[in-house]
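Bug report

Summary: structure tokens for DUF3352 domain-containing protein differ between web form and batch submission.
Environment: batch mode, default settings.
Steps: 1) Submit the sequence below via batch. 2) Compare with the web form result.

Sequence submitted:
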Amino acid sequence: MQAKPKTTGVFNRFRHHTASVWRCHLAIAASVSVLMGCAANAPEHPLAFAPEQSLYVAANLAPPSEQAQVFSQTATQPLKAIWTQWYPILRKSWLQEEPENSSVVFLDYVNDTLSTQGMAGLGFNSPTYYALYEVDLHPVLRISLKEPEKLRTFIAKWEKSTNQVFTPQTLDGTTYWRVPLSSLQPDNLAEKVEALKQRSEELEQWPNLDAIPDLDNIPNLPVPAAPNTEKALDVVFAINDHYAIITLQSVNDDTPLPLLLGQQKPKRSIWDAQTLQQVNTRHSLSPYGTFWLDTSRLLPLLGIPAAPQSPQPESPHDRSLLKTPLSAACQREITLLASHMPEVVAGTTQVDAKQLHAKLALALTPEIRQDLQRLQAPLPGWDAAPNLMEVGVSLRLDQLANIVQKYIQRIQAQPWECEWFEPLNQLVQSPKSIQVLAPLYAAGNTATGMYMRATGLTMQDDTPIPEGVLLAASPNPRALFAYLSMAIPELGKLNVQPGMAPQQITLPEGQWNTANLPVWVGMSEQAVGVALGVSAKSELEHLLQQHTSGNSPLTFSRYSGTLFADVLQPIMQHAYEEYERKLQASRNEEANNTANPAAQTAPAQTLQAQESQTQEQQAAQASMQLFWDWVRLFKTVGDSLLISDQGLEYQYHIHLQ
């Protein structure tokens, strides 16, 4: 017989291989199923509950980066240290005033929890996602939550500290509390104000301190309405497995609570529409926190129907806040105005371990942007190295007059038809509307900006006198100098020309220079400058030698934390020591006055009071040093107002050491 070929080994290997492949596939399928199951159970982003047509939204799309967290920790660490210094003293003072003060127990809990665990100690996620949005004209804040029980513990302790109990209610797995807004006002507010007034009397001995404001007639905190009325507002605070929700609702509000708390989700959300992602891309914002408002969505509040391309409200309620409907002309012209300013945006543009840049922008149409960009002008000092403190203003007044005249003529040719704008029609028809522009045209050819730079402080009779540089930018500095000579005749005696060294000028005693500091005057091809004080002379020379080509912002300010602290800390330390000296002298006088009943205190009480005073003095000294260390952290802090490619922008930045 012919032997059969041996196929068993090959078959077995094939079978084992096939089985292994299937096991791998099954394992992958199981893993995917688990992951999909986790994803299905994972909480949605809070924006998933924000209706697409929300008037406004503020939210983060991503948690702060590690670098951003380092920035925050670095910038706040000295403040935490200051709080650590003062909290035991404040706690002791509160207990002395009210031995059974339940608020102290609550503050102990909050202080211990936050200092050791941060916001995670209250149950919040790390990282935390949040969203503030509008639902049927109600503000809603939704924050991601990890451990709801910790937040419930916080609420219970807060209730105990305030001696108030708000009955929790449940709605589809969400626990919520209704807290009348008026109940948040302290019952003993008047007593607290009186205590503040008495404590402030000691501050009157601080040298050169302005008068303490009158605290006698401080009204109660404003609340929208008294409790138990139809218009009284409640703060609705809710907790479920994934979120903490805060909103406002009046007693007889007909907006369903499930709609506010998110049990009834919108048909289409801002998260679905990717609205905030598009805003961040359009304005080059980071995802760590953005505010956005679409002006066209404000129109329904005036009874103007939403544009067809805008998201339509899901609620059947009339969103108009007006009792009398607008005319067709007003609806048309207000809609036109809103289209020229389509959105308001705020957020961070850059953040890392050492710097933070952010902005607030009002978007404008191209025509308006181009008009406003002509207002900007070069300003010497704008691009200089930061100093102690700087402030600048740059504005082409002649271009401002051009813009105003352009729109005056446009309104004259086609007046507003809306009755709201009738006063504007009357204004532009007046001959004076053009006449008042003449000074702007004249000034625009003489001065285009002002730059002030503080360079130091000098002490005169325990009073700090600032020294610094003042530059007046001008397309024609010789003409500006001539105008100034008319107001200050002493200038006419100087031979000041561009390129020459600044010259010292002697002003009449008490005139223009009450501190009698030395003054120098100089000129460049772009500005006329004045140096006040010895520390400012070299700065003036340096600034006049620089040439600024690009336009500066309309306004800007900057300061250096290090220089600021170096200059002010000795002055403030001297003032504090003087305050302590006078306060101690006052206490000694009281102790020596045998006729004063306060002097007849027991030795133990006197010793206790002295120990408390010593502790407060030590804490004050340590806190002052920590404060100046905190100020020195800030290498540069600045802001500016400018016209960008998007519109009118307010920008600010913080650079750490």
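Above is the batch result. After comparison, the two runs are identical; trailing whitespace caused the diff. The radius of gyration is 33 Å. Residues 46-185+223-277 form one domain.
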